[in-house]
Design goal:
The chain has about 425 residues and is mostly helical. It has a single domain (about 5-419), classed as Alpha/alpha barrel (Glycosyltransferase), CATH 1.50.10.10. It is built from 17 helices and nine strands. The strands form four sheets. Strands 3-6-7 form a three-stranded antiparallel sheet. Helix 2 (about 35-45) runs parallel beside helix 5 (about 105-115), helix 5 (about 105-115) packs antiparallel against helix 6 and helix 16 crosses helix 17. The structure holds (2R)-2,3-dihydroxypropanoic acid (DGY). (2R)-2,3-dihydroxypropanoic acid (DGY) binds near residues 70, 162 and 186. (2R)-2,3-dihydroxypropanoic acid binds near residues 70, 157, 162 and 186.
Length: about 425
């Protein structure tokens, strides 16, 4: 094994807190939803039992209505804001009250495909399947109550791409007033120049206050929020997860469940089609409050390829857009169009390269007949991690690692890319 793979395995082991993995020590001291899905895939390359455990621990946070919260607070920590008191939810263990991109069914399927013939894989997958199904039903009921084919994201944290320029226009209408005092801890761990700004946090917490005030009731949240977006990443990840859940349903589910999932797949496929933005040459978010498309290209807009939801023409155009970006930065894939005035190569989701995005984008490029571009994205990802270590993210202009160090999901992707 190369040093880099040994380091990646050691990173996952070091961030293990007893069956669940923190994204990184101190900055993120709990279990995060989509982080853990990638972590489970990473563990599947060398410790299948531990990979199942990661998923099982995340599901301990699932709510009765099917919501899979974005954070499960398994053990207390003062290193993070906002903690359980700010969320004020009633679940045990404590959780946040919003969600994150639903990668979990895709991770479970990958793990099952790897482990199927070994150990107790059949029984463990059979136990997980109903929770995944309940979660996908929640997405439709809570986030697409009018059955438009697109699920809504109600908080930038739900997208996982907190300060993406895709949210700038919509976030401008979110008040900066909060009833919760803001006590940021992240900027004590990380250079503030790499993190969201103060005004972003005021708006993030305003939204949390707003949802707590309606007791985390999905219908009331949907109606009350001043931020309601159709995110191309969340919708594409959900569509891909539904496709993976359908494969699992053929083994673990019933015929009516398969038909139900197929119905949601048809709806989401049509919905994502409406996010194609010909001016940008990618899929872009749409503001569901005033029905306005976002006009800035971000890496989220490449994930329709991962969901196999693109026409031949759209795939070719999206690949050309990405090739254009490659002419402006040394490493793919910058999270924001490097020609955009919003591009900031070191500030979190406004420019840096994220390994998990690269993994999904490369899968999507392969699936849409762009193997050379897929290989380029994978090679850049490996080069970045091998030079800088498993950092949280990377500067696309010079490859410098940034954000948190010894980061779990980056390590997980390094392991997946070796397989
Ligand atoms: C954070 O705190 O930065 C997270 O992205 C929110 O989940």
């Amino acid at each position: 094994m190369t040093d880099s793979l040994t380091d990646a395995q050691a990173t996952l082991r070091a961030n293990d807190r007893g069956g669940y993995t923190v994204p990184t020590a101190r900055l993120y001291p709990f279990q995060w939803n989509w982080d853990s899905a990638f972590v489970a895939m990473g563990f599947s390359t060398f410790d299948e039992d531990r990979a199942w455990r990661e998923i099982e621990r995340l599901l301990q946070g699932q709510w009765a209505d099917g919501l899979l919260p974005h954070i499960v607070f398994h053990a207390p920590s003062d290193d993070y804001f906002p903690g359980p008191d700010t969320w004020g939810t009633t679940h045990t263990p404590p959780t946040s009250g919003i969600t994150q991109p639903p990668v979990l069914a895709t991770a479970a399927r990958l793990l099952f495909d790897t482990a199927m013939h070994r150990g107790d894989a059949q029984a463990r997958m059979a136990a997980i399947y109903p929770a995944l199904l309940r979660n996908h039903r929640w997405w439709q009921q809570a986030r697409d109550p009018r059955r438009t084919g697109l699920v809504a994201t109600l908080h930038p944290w739900e997208s996982g791409m907190d300060n993406s320029p895709a949210w700038d226009r919509a976030m401008a209408r979110v008040p900066t007033s909060t009833s919760t005092p803001i006590r940021r801890r992240d900027t004590g761990h990380i250079d503030p120049a790499m993190r969201p700004r103060e005004v972003d946090y005021q708006r993030f917490i305003h939204l949390v206050d707003c949802f707590r005030a309606v007791a985390w009731d999905p219908a009331r949240m949907f109606a009350a929020t001043p931020f309601r977006m159709a995110d191309p990443a969340t919708n594409a990840i959900l569509l891909r997860a539904e496709q993976d859940l359908l494969v699992l349903a053929q083994r673990f589910g019933t015929a009516p469940e398969q038909a139900e999932i197929a119905g949601r797949i048809a709806g989401l496929s049509a919905g994502i089609g409406t996010l194609w933005n010909n001016r940008v040459g990618l899929w872009t978010a749409r503001d569901l409050i005033d029905d306005t498309p976002v006009e800035v290209g971000t890496s989220a807009g490449l994930l329709a390829l991962f969901a196999r939801a693109a026409s031949g023409e759209q795939s070719a155009r999206a690949a050309a857009t990405l090739t254009g970006w490659a002419g402006r930065v040394r490493f793919l894939v910058p999270s924001t169009d490097p020609a955009s005035p919003c591009f900031e190569p070191l500030r979190y989701w406004r420019g840096p390269v994220w390994a998990v995005m690269n993994w999904m984008i490369a899968e999507g490029l392969d699936a849409s007949g762009q193997p050379e571009l897929a290989a380029r994205v994978r090679a850049d990802t490996v080069a970045l991690i091998d030079a800088a270590g498993p950092m949280e993210y990377f500067d696309p202009t010079d490859g410098k690692g940034a954000g948190g160090t010894a980061f779990s999901w980056t390590a997980a992707i390094r392991l997946l890319l070796a397989n």
